[in-house]
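pipeline stage [seq->struct] | target=AzlD domain-containing protein | organism=Nocardia fusca | residues=107
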Amino acid sequence: MNDLGYLVGAALALAAGTFAFRLAGPVLGSRITVSTRTTALLENASVVVLAALVCTTALTEDGTAAGIARPAGVLTAGVLYRFRAPLPAALVAAAATTAALRLAGVP
């Protein structure tokens, strides 16, 4: 099988898996009862996983520390978003902060 065949096969496998996960909710939703504590833990777990992803992406690059410029940009976006700035404005400010610091020679 050539590379295109592997790519198409992988795409079809991912599509089937995604469809199965999306179908599992409505099908199993009426058959399984979940306690409110479990629901709260699952909601908190999704926030923790997202925070871990943000931290890993913001603080590391190729398995080493990312320097100061990228975390400073992420911090800028976080502060602006915390004070209810629109998301696009926070993202542009984060990119500008990171670019300005890198232009100034900050790693």
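stage status: PASS
auto-comment: The chain has a mean pLDDT of 91. Residues 3-29 form the longest helix (27 residues).
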